[in-house]
Amino acid sequence: MSSSQRYNALKGVQDILPPDIYLWQRVESVARKIFANYGFQEIKAPIIESTTLFTRSIGETTDIVEKEMYTFPDKAGRSITLRPEGTAPVVRAYVEHHLHTLPPPQKFFYSGPMFRYERPQKGRFRQFYQIGVEAFGVATAELDGEVIAMLKVLLENLGLRELNFEVNSIGCEECRPSYRSSLQDFFSSRLDHLCPDCKRRYEFNPLRILDCKVERCIETRKGAPKVTDFLCGECRDHFEGVLSILRLLQIPHLVNPDMVRGLDYYTRTTFEVTTEHLGSQKAVAAGGRYDRLVEEFGGPFTPAIGFAIGMERLTALLKETGGTEVPSPQVFMASIGKRATQEGLLMAERFRAKGLWVEVGYEGSLRSQLRRADKLASHYVFIIGDDELSSGKMQWKNLRDGSQGEVEITQADEFVSSRLIP
Ligand code: ATP
Ligand code: MG
After folding, report:
1. pTM for the complete prediction?
2. At what angle do helices 338-353 and 412-420 cross, to 10 degrees?
3. What is the mean pLDDT of residues 26-51?
């Protein structure tokens, strides 16, 4: 064999290992349950898409498109991008498969990895996971309220409290132009105080200045005109409607007129769930309305709204507040001798067929097998040796309460059924 070579995961990506993975699994299973209660069905879209799908929808002058996309030519020279977010692929699938022919609202959820070439730091990775939802076909504020309520119910079911729900409306193509020019007016005399990126944003996409995370831009934008003062009548009514539904559903919230979000496809409602417990990467989940995107992808006019939860930030928060239970084997089969080991294997297979988690000892002294059983926090241990086999009995121990005894091998199946299967 040639000389060996060690590999490490790439910068900004990480392996999710046990026991953390149990936390991830709990989030996914609680999310599935809650989404089902609200009628959201799963959709699995591909991880790779045409680059223009993202440049068009997210916007040419956003950070994601300008700096963060993993874009490469495939072998035929097509420009491919690893999805930086989940909405554009779902909207593409929605239009491609004519999902608008289903009765509205059509409601979907997804879960999977996203890719952004960002500077890795706490709560910020290059491959990260999102669980997200998208609801199509209903324009009224009730849907906005319900989607935000679902997010709150999900986070509360996971045991999280003390989260801030921030909401805003960024208007529509009717009201945005006047807001845009009023922002440009405001920043025109302050250009020197902005970062180089924001100087460009000033020109092409001044709303993006409000989303900049550079300290001096945060300082400079204090006192900037508020988007909520520029809403057209319909957008104002819609926003008032959303706020009143949030009150009806008793969702404490804060109106944050600076929250424009980093994607250009949003219209009207935008929202974020933030926490004080994660340092500067505060946003655990975020979303908004995107009433024009289906049309922009060639579908019929279809208002829509969605959100995405950042799994790394959410699980970090859950870990702080107590973690999750790690499962352990229900039975450990310790055995001494070849015949006993084979009998143990057969028994293990029968118990597994009943739905139990069964570990076997394989090899080593009885002592070392028992040590392993203990380390795994096994519930029951069975000890079977060639002597026990000839007497037709084996020993059992309950490692949780210390009780022990003997059981006829022919009775072992009943024994585990009565003690371990609810
Ligand atoms: P941020 O302002 O923190 O950069 P964002 O506005 O770019 O977030 P969205 O595109 O709204 O994020 O994605 C929704 C959620 O996905 C975020 O609230 C966050 O929890 C998570 N998220 C976004 N980017 C990353 C990343 N690079 N690493 C880990 N999680 C991320
Ligand atoms: Mg970002």
Report:
1. 0.94
2. 40
3. 98
| Per-residue pLDDT reduced to its tens digit, 41-76 | 999 999 999 999 999 999 998 999 999 999 999 999
Q: Check whether the bond before 177 is cis (ω within 30° of 0).
A: no
* Mean pLDDT rounded to a whole number for the chain: 95
CA atoms of 420 and 50, how far apart (whole Å): 52
**What is the rounded distance in angstroms from the CA atom of residue 213 to the CA atom of residue 201?**
13
Q: Distance, CA 283 to ligand 1 centroid (Å)?
A: 7
Scanning the structure block, which residue is given the tokens 């209660």?
A: 37
199 Cβ inside 6 Å of ligand 1? no
Candidate from 24, 82, 130 with most ligand 1 atoms within 8 A of CB, to mutate: 130
Q: Are strands 127-136 and 304-310 parallel, antiparallel or unpaired?
A: antiparallel
Residue 220 CB less than 6 A away from ligand 1: no
pLDDT of 237 above 90: yes
Residue 185: how many CA atoms within 13 Å on its side-chain side?
9
Contacts of residues 34-40 at CB distance under 8 Å and 24 or more positions apart, as own/partner, are 34/150, 34/153, 34/154, 34/157, 35/109, 35/133, 35/150, 35/154, 38/107, 38/146, 38/150, 39/107, 40/107, 40/108, 40/109, 40/133, 40/135, 40/150
Beta bridge partners of 380: 331, 398
Backbone angles phi, psi at 358, to 5 degrees: -125, 130
Ligand with the closest atom to the CA of 58: 1
170 Cα–ligand 2 center, Å: 18
Query: Residue 273, by phi and psi: left (phi above 0), alpha (psi -120 to 50) or beta?
Result: beta
pLDDT at 1: 62
The rounded distance, in Å, linking the Cα atoms of 184 and 9 is 44
Interval 83-142: pLDDT, tens: 999 999 999 999 999 999 988 999 999 999 999 999 999 999 999 999 999 999 999 999
What torsion do the CA atoms of 298, 300, 306, 311 make, to the nearest 10 degrees? -30
Q: Which ligand is nearest to the CA of 119?
A: 1
Pocket test for ligand 1, best of 54, 62, 63, 116 (most atoms within 8 A of CB): 116
Residue 282 CB less than 6 A away from ligand 1: no
Element (H, E) at 102: none
- 127-146 residues labelled b (16+ CB within 10 A) or e (exposed): bbbbbbbbbbbbbebebbbb
Q: What's the gap in Å between 313 CA and the centre of ligand 1?
A: 9
